[in-house]
Design brief:
The complex is a heterodimer of chains A (317) and B (303).
Chain A lengths: L1 H9 L6 H43 L2 H4 L13 H30 L5 H16 L2 H27 L14 H25 L3 H9 L4 H30 L2 H7 L16 H8 L6 H30 L5
Chain B lengths: L1 H9 L12 H35 L5 H5 L13 H32 L4 H15 L2 H13 L11 H26 L2 H9 L4 H12 L1 H17 L28 H9 L4 H33 L1
The chains are: A mainly alpha (317), B mainly alpha (303).
């Protein structure tokens, strides 16, 4: 019956109920998976805040400005770790910015053949892939012994400056700063490279056309055009430097005594957590949660500002 | 006007040649040299670290390294077999959690989400979560899983470690899935829906297979990153000197390569330090291999 077949073809078929069910439940699953991110983020904030309540009530703001970390007397203040976190992350940033941006310029401009550029770019990316614990191991056994004579020189001749006032005896702030440079350099380089690549070629051609040299083009035209991306990358690196744990824990010396010196041992919030959290009890746990909460809030703020910078300030071409 | 013209044309033609002595050209050369120097300094650490890891780690390589347990302090020999196995177990647990959740979240963002407050918040949250310090992830998992003994009464366990690592992997997987799906041409989606396929069939049969390459690349990279992470594991998976055995493997403390490196690097015994270097070598080889694999996946399909 050819007419029957014909009719069958044009019958409007409703989707079976099970198919609709599969469709809608797939959507629900996808939404709930996506919500996991928000859930985890909020849960982390709540857990850390909840844990720190006891210490917050007991020490309040004094916690931030006292440097007495004494489990025996049950007195806690986190100034040493805050100073260490600030100094190590800011100084490492200070070193890493020129290195990272300089490298990014070198591998985006046509100084060297594309092949060589790609190889340098690949090596920087592989540097980012090396686990921090391996960098820490290297810092303990190779970098720190190598640095010690240099640092001793600083101590002997500039020891009257508070920052160089302790004799380098092993792990300390300076090796920690240098290992942080190694860890954040790939971030700054990669993001600067991306934002430099996005600068439209017409800007460069216009600059060359009016007779600018290559470097005056880079400094006056290309870098200003890419600055928002670079600034975002720098802030991202700052967040990473403040939260970086393993390599710093292994090389910073984990001292709870406050000292201005960069040559002696110090501490950061992350290193303190890694070292003490597993064995702490009582008020110490709560104080560690408090420190973790401070770290969390600072890194969150830095990350949010960096995202905002990249989004809002990026020039639209 | 004519005066200007003659003064320009009146100069000797050598005026147009490159003059290396000019201040602007000198500055140019100095800056070029400087940026080249910076690039050299930037890749120096990679070369130095890799050299030492190969030099100190590969020399310790042997069969017993893979098959034996770490020796007690002061004794010679031994291997890191349990830590290698532990890293594989913990990373697999993390992958089994993070990959479905991350791909699901990515599918929602790319295929279902409209420009609204919720999807913006999820995207924002993904970026923020990737910036949360890994040690805080460890603290979080310690609180909700280890100290509460929520999983069958076990405290430190391979599962707790896996959960902590999965939180680290999640943002990467979501982001790469989202971006990979967005690269799929919209025509394919419309075509599939046009011939009567449901949204579910469109996604699972058309868009996901098309976006396989970028998703696979992101997953491989996140696995490589997770395998090298230490901070979230030191008080979730802890460490163990024994083999993970049978069904207990998931509910007991477990050794991993990264925690082994951390623990053994600070011990004052030469044997332990050597094992730490050997573990670094294995870990670095694995991670670099994963990185190259992800590049290769991308390269393969771009042709």
């Amino acid at each position: 019956m050819p007419t029957g077949v014909q009719k069958e073809l044009y019958v409007l078929r409703r989707r079976p109920a099970y198919e609709k069910f599969v469709d809608s439940s797939f959507r629900t699953i996808a939404i709930s998976m996506a919500s996991m991110v928000a859930l985890i983020l909020v849960a982390i904030l709540i857990v850390v805040f909840w844990g720190s309540l006891e210490s917050m009530g007991r020490y309040g703001w004094k916690f931030l400005v006292t440097s007495n970390w004494n489990p025996v007397d049950d007195e806690y203040g986190v100034l040493t770790a805050i100073y260490g976190t600030a100094v190590t992350s800011l100084l490492s940033l200070l070193i890493a910015i020129p290195l990272g941006v300089g490298t990014a310029i070198f591998i985006t401009e046509s100084f060297i053949p594309t092949r060589a550029k790609n190889i340098i770019g690949l090596m920087i990316e592989l540097l980012a892939a090396i686990p921090s614990v391996v960098l820490g191991l290297w810092a303990i056994f190779v970098m720190e012994p190598f640095l010690r004579p240099l640092l001793s020189f600083l101590y002997i001749y500039f020891g009257w400056i508070p920052f160089f006032s302790t004799q380098p005896m092993g792990p300390g702030m300076t090796p920690a700063i240098l290992i942080l440079v190694v860890m954040i350099l790939p971030i700054i380089t990669a993001i600067s490279r991306d934002s430099l690549n996005q600068v439209p070629i017409s800007l460069r051609q216009a600059a060359y056309g009016v007779g600018a040299t290559r470097w005056s083009t880079i400094i006056n035209v290309i870098l200003p055009a890419a600055i928002s991306g670079i600034a975002g990358g720098v802030l991202l690196a700052l967040g990473r430097a403040m939260g970086e744990t393993m390599a710093v824990t292994m090389i910073i010396g984990n001292s709870n005594n406050f000292s201005w010196s960069l040559l002696g041992p110090g501490n950061t919030i992350a290193a303190m957590l890694a070292n003490q959290f597993g064995e702490a009890d009582g008020t110490q746990v709560s104080s560690l949660y408090y420190a973790a909460f401070i770290l969390m809030v600072i890194t969150l703020a830095v990350n949010i500002v960096s995202q905002w910078l990249v989004k809002r300030l990026s020039l639209k071409y | 006007m004519t005066g200007e013209a003659t003064s320009i044309s009146g100069d000797p033609p050598s005026n147009l040649y490159y003059k290396p002595g000019l201040r602007r050209n000198r500055t140019n050369r100095i800056f070029t040299l400087l940026s080249g120097l910076f690039s050299f300094v930037a890749i120096l650490p990679l070369i130095l670290v890799l050299t030492y890891v190969i030099f100190k780690g590969a020399t310790r390589l042997s069969i017993s390294l893979f098959t034996m347990l770490p020796p007690p302090p002061g004794l010679d020999g031994g291997g890191i077999g349990n830590a290698i196995l532990g890293t594989i177990i913990v990373t697999c647990i993390a992958g089994m959690i993070a990959i479905p959740v991350g791909v699901g979240g990515g599918i929602y963002l790319a295929e279902y989400a409209r420009e609204g407050a919720f999807s913006r918040f999820i995207r924002f949250g993904t970026n923020v979560l990737s910036g949360v310090p890994s040690i805080i992830t460890g603290v979080f998992v310690y609180d909700i899983i280890v100290s509460s003994r929520i999983i069958l009464g076990s405290s430190y366990s391979a599962i707790a470690g896996g959960v902590a690592l999965s939180i680290l992997m999640l943002p990467t997987v979501i982001k790469t899935t989202d971006e990979g799906l967005k690269l799929v041409p919209d025509n394919l989606r419309k075509g599939a829906l046009g011939v009567g396929a449901s949204k579910f069939v469109t996604i699972t049969h058309i868009t996901l297979p098309m976006a396989f390459t970028p998703i696979a690349t992101g997953v491989v990279l996140s696995v490589a990153r997770a395998a090298g992470e230490t901070a979230p594991l030191i008080f979730t998976a802890l460490f163990s000197y024994y083999w993970p055995s049978g069904s207990d493997a998931f509910f007991n403390p477990i050794a991993t390569l990264s925690v082994l490196i951390y623990n053994f690097s600070t011990q004052p015994y030469q044997v332990q330090n050597e094992l730490a270097w050997a573990a670094s070598f294995i870990l670095v080889v694995f991670i670099l291999a994963m990185n190259i694999l992800s590049r290769w996946i991308g390269h393969l399909t771009s042709k």
